Amino acid sequence: MNTILRKSILGVAGLAFTGGVFAGPIAAHADTPAHAAPAKAAAAAVQGEQSTIPLNDEQTANAKAIIAATKKAGLPERAAVISIATSLQESKLENLGHLGDKNDHDSLGLFQQRPSSGWGSPEQITDPEYSTLAFLKGLKQVDGWQDMPLTKAAQTVQVSAYPDAYAQWEKQATDLVNQHWTK
Predict the structure, then answer these.
(1) 20 versus 166: which is more confidently predicted?
(2) What are residue 120's phi and psi, to 5 degrees?
(3) Is the pLDDT of residue 12 over 80?
(4) Three-class secondary structure of residue 79 per DSSP
(5) 133 φ, ψ (degrees, to nearest 5)
(6) How many other CB atoms are there within 10 angstroms of residue 22's CB atom?
(7) Computed from CA positions of residues 106, 31, 64, 52, in that sequence, does the dihedral angle turn out positive or negative?
(8) Coil, strand or helix: which one is 46?
(9) Residue 107: CB atoms within 10 Å
(10) In this structure, how many other beta carbons lie within 10 angstroms of the beta carbon of residue 149?
(11) Using CA atoms, how far apart are residues 77 and 82, in angstroms rounded to an integer?
(12) What are the backbone angles phi and psi of residue 109, rounded to the nearest 5°?
């Protein structure tokens, strides 16, 4: 690949990363009009090998809190699937506080959001409704999120060092949404 093309590609990738780190979470908290997207079935073409974990009562309650916040935001089941899969990857649906050296920087809560990146205060980030609504505000800013692979939608909001890891939770997230959406 010639040098100019390679530098252009790396420059665009760097801008995309920087935009996600600095503008994504902060912009996710901007007031945006709440409007319901067209309803779409929670089931989607699942990509790759799937993981599953047994959930305790706290994890199930957190999944239900994500679903409730998604409904409150007026978003369809697909948004809840993406949110739950993201939380499964980031925290295994556990509302994580400060874990000392085990924390990734200052990451907290269900989505491992960082106060230093503009997601909110530690108290806000560890509130399941707040952290879900913050994630969903970021998701709504992703053009075409409803039709893109789950891992791409989640990664665009989260800017993870492991962008493909979200896909492994799609089946379990879909099952949880299908089980609890109408309850």
Answers:
(1) 166
(2) 140, -175
(3) no
(4) helix
(5) -65, -35
(6) 13
(7) negative
(8) coil
(9) 21
(10) 18
(11) 9
(12) 80, -165
Q: What is the overall mean pLDDT for the chain?
A: 80
Where do we find the tokens 């990738």? 13
pLDDT at 20 over 60: no
CB 62 within 8 A of CB 94: yes
Quick: pLDDT tens for 108-138.
999 999 888 899 999 999 999 999 999 999 9
CA distance 12 to 93: 33
Checking if the pLDDT of 2 tops 80, the result is no
Nearest C-alpha neighbor of 92 from the set 36, 133, 51:
51
Q: What does the block give as tokens for 73? A: 């935001």
Question: Which residues share a beta bridge with 113?
Answer: 108
Q: How would you classify residue 48: left for phi > 0, otherwise alpha for psi between -120 and 50, otherwise beta? A: left
Question: Which amino acid, one-letter code, is at 165?
Answer: A
Structure-token pair, residue 82: 């993406």
Q: Are 81 and 153 in contact (CB under 8 A)?
A: no
The angle at the Cα of 56, spanning 50 to 60, to the nearest 5 degrees, equals 75
For 41-100, write each residue's pLDDT tens digit.
Answer: 445 566 789 999 999 999 999 999 999 999 999 999 999 999 999 999 999 999 987 665
Please report, rounded to a whole number, the percentage of residues in the chain having pLDDT higher than 90: 60
Contact between 110 and 90 (Cβ < 8 Å): yes
Query: What would the DSSP string read from start to end of 135-159?
Result: HHHHHHTSTTGGGS-HHHHHHHHH-
